[in-house]
Amino acid sequence: MAKAMIAGLVNTHQIEVLGKDMVKLRALNDAFGGKLSLGLLQEGVDVTGKTLLLCVKPHALGAVSSYVQGEAHGLISVLAGTSLKALQEAFTCKHLIRAMPNLAAAHGASMTLLTGDNDFRETSEAILKSIGKTHWLGTEKEFDIAMALTGSGPAFLALVAEALCDGVVREGLKREDATFLARGLFEGFAPLLQANHPALIKEAVMSPGGVTAAGLGALEDCKARSAFMLAIKKTYEKTLK
Ligand SMILES: NC(=O)C1=CN([C@@H]2O[C@H](COP(=O)(O)OP(=O)(O)OC[C@H]3O[C@@H](n4cnc5c(N)ncnc54)[C@H](OP(=O)(O)O)[C@@H]3O)[C@@H](O)[C@H]2O)C=CC1
Ligand SMILES: O=C(O)[C@@H]1CCC=N1
């Protein structure tokens, strides 16, 4: 996630990357043409007045915060399931934001959620727009719910793509044809979804007594809709744990 953010920001911002391994940091800097400043995350790192993008796994929050000192200007955290309260306890900063990008950030096409300090909304939106679209949510509850859709969504859609491919392979299509076709399907579906409500897309394809109706009937028999709703519920509940 850090790499995606750097890629989006490196040509417009001064970026200092703090990490625990100088060899990895140098390799990262090489990948970005030497445009980064590097620093070791060690005791006494002064972050006074800086805007921090926190991109470690949630369990590393305590370790990272124990190294830094001073009052940061802003902190933008991408840590899943880590509340504003927990961040506030860990860091001293003027403005605090939670952000939830997704894997498409690597292609500048993230759908990123934001919540937190309204006074830092514009700045944080501008930063996160470097990796795609942003959407501000007024409460942390909405943010945690929405995360199941956009943060975990790529994994859910990958399962759909893979399952559809498995289906046609089972009927006799070659795997490479299936994969090529699924990629084209998702590419074409993106603009369709931008222009139409999903229910209308389904209705437009579902001819009376037709082949798609037979397939959709099977999905309903297998409770596919209910399975997705349960997946969202379980993802959200896990976020709160
Ligand atoms: N993957 C996803 O789709 C999404 C992830 N997120 C969130 O992004 C965050 C990062 O995830 P992701 O980028 O996938 O994880 P990665 O494991 O790819 O990256 C984590 C980075 O944190 C570094 N790190 C770990 N521990 C420490 C430490 N104690 N001090 C300094 N640096 C440390 C790691 O360094 P090293 O390699 O040297 O160990 C690594 O560079 C998570 O909190 C996750 O919830 C948010 C949205 C989507
Ligand atoms: O599952 C996770 O923990 C991370 C957060 C959102 C996407 N992946």
TrEMBL record:
The keyword Cytoplasm applies. Keywords: Amino-acid biosynthesis, Cytoplasm, NADP, Oxidoreductase, Proline biosynthesis. Transmembrane segments: none annotated. It holds the Pfam family P5CR_dimer. Its main location: cytoplasm. Its EC number is 1.5.1.2. Residues 140-239 form the Pyrroline-5-carboxylate reductase dimerisation domain. InterPro entries: 6-PGluconate_DH-like_C_sf, NAD(P)-bd_dom_sf, P5CR_dimer, Pyrroline-COOH_reductase. It is found in: Cytoplasm. It catalyses: L-proline + NAD(+) = (S)-1-pyrroline-5-carboxylate + NADH + 2 H(+); L-proline + NADP(+) = (S)-1-pyrroline-5-carboxylate + NADPH + 2 H(+). Pathway: Amino-acid biosynthesis; L-proline biosynthesis; L-proline from L-glutamate 5-semialdehyde: step 1/1. Belongs to the pyrroline-5-carboxylate reductase family. Catalyzes the reduction of 1-pyrroline-5-carboxylate (PCA) to L-proline. This is Pyrroline-5-carboxylate reductase.
